[in-house]
Amino acid sequence: MLSTQLDATFSALADPTRRAILARLALGEASVMELAAPFAMSQPAISKHLKVLEKAGLVSRGRDAQRRPVKALAEPLAEATKWMETYRETLEMNFSRLDDLLEELKAEDAAKTARKTPKGETQ
């Protein structure tokens, strides 16, 4: 189930318009018309983006009289962040080990160079 949710989350986030919509919703709920305003696209096109976000569980739509506010939902993003954090920690450990190895190789190379250089000469 987690894999399916992650797939839906990352698929929804792959589009820059949907990411911009989520960034706007991070400031608070908004109507479809309010969300459509900064984009050079129609309200139906924005609605299609919202359907993708809604299907991924990233937004929900409510009803407030005539207004249908859209709000961001944090849980799928939290799950994606948790998943990415695991890999970030692993990669940081790998990079740290690589840094240590490079420093070791530099020290060995410097030692070899020092042994090859005759006394009194500099390179």
Task: Please describe the topology of this protein.
Elements: H1 2-13, H2 16-25, H3 32-36, H4 43-55, E1 59-61, E2 70-72, H5 75-116
Antiparallel strand pairs: 1-2
Helix pairs in contact: 1-4, 1-5
Describe this structure in words.
The protein is mainly alpha-helical. The chain has a domain at about 1-75: Arc Repressor Mutant, subunit A. It contains five helices and two strands; from the N terminus they run H-H-H-H-E-E-H. Strands 1-2 form a two-stranded antiparallel sheet. The longest helix has about 40 residues, at about 75-115. It is elongated. The N and C termini lie far apart (about 60 Å). The relative contact order is 0.12. The model has no long low-confidence stretch (mean pLDDT about 90).
Name the overall outline.
elongated
For the largest beta-sheet, the strand count, sense and barrel status come to: 2 strands, antiparallel
Instruction: Please report the first level of CATH classification, the CATH class of the domain at 2-73.
Output: Mainly Alpha
**β-sheet strand percentage:** under 5%
What fraction, in percent, of the residue positions are helical?
Answer: 55-70%
Which homologous superfamily in CATH is the superfamily of the domain at 2-73?
Winged helix-like DNA-binding domain superfamily/Winged helix DNA-binding domain
Give me the CATH architecture of the domain at 2-73, please: Orthogonal Bundle
How many individual β-strands? 2
Mean pLDDT: 89
- Give the low-confidence spans: none
- For this structure, the CATH topology of the domain at 2-73 is Arc Repressor Mutant, subunit A
Query: SSE string, helix = H, strand = E?
Result: HHHHEEH
**Rg to the nearest angstrom?**
26 Å
Q: What's the total helix number? A: 5
Structural class: mainly alpha
Alpha carbon gap, first and last residue: 62 Å
Record the strand order, biggest sheet.
1-2
